[in-house]
Amino acid sequence: MSPDLNIKITDLRVGRRNPKVEDTTSVLAEAPDTIVKCLRCSVNLDITWVILGHSERRALLNESNEFVGEKVAYALSKGLKIIACIGETLEQREAGSTLDVVAAQTKAIAERISDWTNVVLAYELVWAIGTGKVATPAQAQGSKRYHSNKSLKSTT
User: Which region is the signal sequence (predicted)?
Assistant: First the structure.
């Protein structure tokens, strides 16, 4: 007997990755706000969330903490909600710089915004991606404990 697969989705949200800071030029994998506004109207998509600061963009496109902070502030000003990615590389982790790296990433956002209501910090286990290293639950929770114990206001 197969399980009942009649699932009712009642709280589904659509998001997008990496909006541009301005609506002027075309860049691969970046959707200007004008396109998203068009989608909201014509397709009736309620795109309210955006992922910023993803490790791939930080590494491949050299997106700095400051640039990510600017993008967060800009997206908030356009009425979007933010999933801001933070996390350290394997080299940074092995050098014992985890908390410094994560604090600097968070501070760059905190210096540009005052209201965290529509911002979620997502800790990426960047150091474990493609390295063969596996994070324990305690390691994955380590950065979360840092942010839970430290007021974001104190990072500014």
Answer: none
Domain ranges of the chain: 14-155
SS3 137: helix
The pLDDT mean for the chain works out to 76
The CATH T-level fold of domain 14-155 is TIM Barrel (3.20.20)
Q: Can you tell me whether residue 27 is helix, strand or coil?
A: coil
- Which residues form the catalytic set? 54, 124
Coil, strand, or helix at residue 49?
A: strand
Q: Would you state the pLDDT for residue 7?
A: 54
DSSP 8-state assignment for residue 7: P
Condensed to tens digits (0 to 9), the pLDDT of residues 65-88 reads: 999 999 999 989 988 899 999 999
- 3-state class (DSSP) for residue 64: coil
Query: What residue has token string 């009642």?
Result: 10
